[in-house]
Amino acid sequence: MSEPFFIDASILQIHDAAPVKATFLETVSDGHFFGFYTLENNAPADARTLFANVGTSALIPNVSSVFLGNRLGGKTPVFFVIENGWDLNRGAPWFNDAASGQNGFWKFLKPEENGLFPALEQGKTVWKNAGGLTVRPAVDATVETARPVLVWQANDGRIHVPKGKIYHSCAYGLHPELNPDGARRFVFTTQKESAAVLLCYVDASVPPAKQKPLIAFRLQAGDGNFQALLRNRIAAVLPVLPDDEKVLSASVEIPDEFEDALEIDGVADGRTVTVGQDTVSIEINANRLEIKGVARAALYTALLSRVKIKTDATAPAKSKVAATIETASGIIEGRGEVDILSEKAADRPSSPIIAKAAHTPPASISNYSALPAFYAETKSETLPSFLTQTETATVRNAPKSAAFNKTVLIAGGARGIGADIARALAARGCAVIVHCHADVADAAKLVEELRRAGHGKAAYVRADFNSVDETGGLIDDVTRTYGAPDLLVFAASADLPDSAAGGFDENVAVNLRAPFILTGAYARVLPKGRVGNVLAVFKNDRTGFSSAALTKAATRELVALAGGTLADKVRVNALALSGYDASARGRLIDAVCFLAQNPLVSGQVLELGGQPSASAGK
């Protein structure tokens, strides 16, 4: 890993439409809830669940990942942790939907006095007392709100408040009022090798030199966003300030022989910044910037993290930077060089621009550079150990010939038919990667079930097939982490009525567009000389005039088209189910295993009968 440096979490911004991926790395304890939202007009928006149960019992380090979506361009993502959120809330009936992000949505409200609870009244959120009387309308929270209340508003009109303390990633320097206390905070450090940022949730009471992550994630948003985050930023030369230190002033200076100038993102020259009881003034004189006023180290860290060099350099260049910070304990200095490039020139493709400090990093930074080995980005040529380890899978009542070792990606594998296929293939020695969208809780439970049953080769990934970008990125993402799968099973299904809002579009996106995109992407990532295997599984629906029936019928044409035009890269087949019961399940598994191992069959749709059953699903 390259030498990292701290960045205040509030400066993270996504500049383009690249999907943002969050990968779980480690935790010291299980049972926490992890989510995120974006800041729009200085207020939380689009809050979502990322990992409902952060812990090694449900997640695999360096493997379990989710996408934040592809509509974050120009927005600032904020992450939050509900400490023990899974353990405290999992028994509540409403929490199953909240954990998977279904049948409702999260939002933040300004808090009210004890004894009041939020409720929906005539379409508006209000606060009521224990007697059920409305006290006042509820107001949405902003980043200036002290201890905002997170609520889950279910589609049935009920509003629920999760138990547990909530800590926000942007609530450190500029917005400390968001967090319930100063016991926890988030730290961002850079990871050059994978163009990523490490998001570490730490114990703020521990001195920086001894801090270790309580929870850690890797955030990847593409090389362009990573460069934009660090470009011309002086953070690499800044010393780490102890949290309990009082700072009197800080100055940053660059050479004056060029026309380069210093600036602070979002803060104007001559402005006075007040956060809580701390007030500082900012003065900028081209190549020199000064911050004055007695304040917490956190406020200075946040402001200095935003300092950048405004330059007209049309080619990569270097600028010397000197930072001097006066604290109650004495003077702390940082010296080094920063790579600079004008924003206009940076729009052209170029190599990563990473600031490199000349001074020796403080001990606290060194701690983060010594994080566990799985923090390093996994390359496709070096597969994770759980995919390469040699262990014999035990198949109950199955002949030894039924076992075969393959890496399988199952789209729509969290429940129903897909989950049945996942269980059967895992039992036969396959490394199973379960794809899900909203059914994150189901996917996590299935992976844990397979691991507890002795089938340790299991993981899950998340992608929304309603998004072209997330659909298109799924194969590349899986291949980078695990290598190209040996078998791609498409068991995802949408059966929405056309009268439902977005029903037609979702049926087309999931049933037809997704298998088309995934098949093409799969063929492209396969190494030269290797033939892949695609298998679509769908319910045979020939009744009624609907987009669901139309798209499933079109799967037959897709199989024929891909089986012919991509014959040199992949074998493509499908299983059409007329019903799904216990007897059909057995025939389905036999057919899947047959097609997974037979190199001669391609472009075929096999018909499987059976009686309809409630177990058939997505």
Tell me about this structure.
The C terminus is likely disordered. The two termini are 40 Å apart. It is built from 13 helices and 32 strands. The longest helix is centred in the last third of the chain and has 23 residues. 23% of the residues lie in helices and 31% in strands. The chain is globular. With 618 residues, it is an alpha+beta fold.
Draw up the topology in text.
Elements: E1 6-7, E2 21-27, E3 32-40, E4 43-54, E5 65-67, E6 76-82, H1 85-89, H2 95-100, E7 104-109, E8 117-121, E9 124-128, E10 134-137, E11 149-154, E12 159-160, E13 166-168, E14 184-191, E15 196-203, E16 215-220, H3 223-230, E17 246-253, E18 261-264, E19 272-275, E20 278-285, E21 288-296, H4 297-305, E22 307-310, E23 317-327, E24 330-340, H5 343-346, E25 356-357, H6 363-369, H7 385-388, E26 407-411, H8 416-427, E27 431-436, H9 440-452, E28 458-462, H10 468-482, E29 487-490, H11 503-525, E30 532-539, H12 547-565, E31 570-577, H13 582-597, E32 605-608
Parallel strand pairs: 26-27, 26-29, 27-28, 29-30, 30-31, 31-32
Antiparallel strand pairs: 1-14, 2-5, 2-16, 3-4, 3-6, 6-13, 7-11, 8-9, 9-10, 11-12, 14-15, 15-16, 17-21, 17-23, 18-22, 19-20, 20-21, 23-24, 24-25
Helix pairs in contact: 8-13, 10-11, 11-12
Strand order of the largest sheet: 19-20-21-17-23-24-25
CATH class category of the largest domain: Alpha Beta
Number of domains: 3
Q: What proportion of the residues is helical, as a percent range? A: 10-25%
Strand content: 25-35%
CATH homologous superfamily label of the largest domain: NAD(P)-binding Rossmann-like Domain
Record field, number of beta strands: 32
Mean pLDDT: 80
What is the CATH architecture annotation of the largest domain? Answer: 3-Layer(aba) Sandwich
Stretches where pLDDT falls below 50 for ≥5 residues? Answer: 348-403, 610-618
